[in-house]
Each structure stands twice: as C-alpha cells, then as structure tokens.
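lol ok so funny story. i was supposed to be doing the assay writeup but got distracted and ended up predicting the structure for this chain instead. priorities right. anyway since i did it might as well share w the group, maybe its usefull for someone
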Amino acid sequence: MEHAQRILVAGASGSGKSTLSADISAKLGIPYTEIDSLFHGPNWGPREEFVLDVAEIAEGETWVSEWQYADARAILARRATTMVWLDYRWPLQISRVIRRTVCRRLTRQELWNGNREAPLRTVFTDDEHVVRWAWRTRHNLRDLPERMTEEYPQLALVRLRSPRNARRWLSELD
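and the output, tada:
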C-alpha cells in the first residue's frame, strides 16, 4: 500500500478500531497511539493536554491511530494519508461493546489513567454509559465517505464491511 504512512482507523464503538490499529502497527512497524489513552484522565475526565498531544502525534512522519473525539478528528485527518473505515453491521458492534464492557468490569481491568468500567447496573442509570453511548451514536458515520473525500482529498479511503474483509486487507498490506 503506497499511502500507508499515516493511517486513521474509523468505525463505531465496538468495530475494532484499536485492535486493527495495533495490528497495522505491528505489520508495518509504524508507531500506534491509542487515542483513548490520550483523552481519558483520572475519573474519566478529559486530559488538558489532549489536543496538544494529538497535534504532536499528527506531525509525525508515520503513525496509526483511531479516528475519534471531535477535538482530534480534524487534526489527524489533515495529516493522514489513509483512512480505514470499519463499516460493520450493528449487531456485531453492539455485541462486542457489551462483551468488552462486561469482561472489563468482571476482571476490574484498569484502563487509562486508573479508570475502570462502572458497575454494570449503571447502564440503566448513566446516560454516558458506553453501551448507551454506542446505541446513541451508531449512525454517526453514515456519510463518512462523502464527508472525508470532500474535506480531505489527500485521504485514500478503505471501506471494510466485515472482520473477514479487514483480515484480508491486513494480510495484503505492505
């Protein structure tokens, strides 16, 4: 792939952005920054340095990262050469979000800056719970191809519609 120096991976929550980003990084030997690790500070609050950190990463010669957070999207997209869009079916994505959330909660896995998933019952009481957020934002990327090609004409857009397509694309990446 000739335009693989600075790669963004886009998709709804649960699509596998972080996993594919890490896989691309390993395959191409380019740095991967998990954007969630830059955004989340203690107690799930946003870090003050987030935008500055994103800008520093974007200036790098090669990188791969997820395309998320409104404050970071334009910064990264202006410098990116390729966007991989994980355009998967909703049932797959929400099942992944639920499974990931339950596993993280049951194991008390530490996430970014000491944060952990909230008790599972909060899915019913917290409007910002990740499962509810995934439901609310599931249609946000419908117009992604048109938007991205208009706003960032330098981007090569790769649309993958299933994990199988993603595995095949990754195997052909060089």
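The mean pLDDT is 92. The first strand starts at residue 6 and ends at 11.
back to the writeup now i swear
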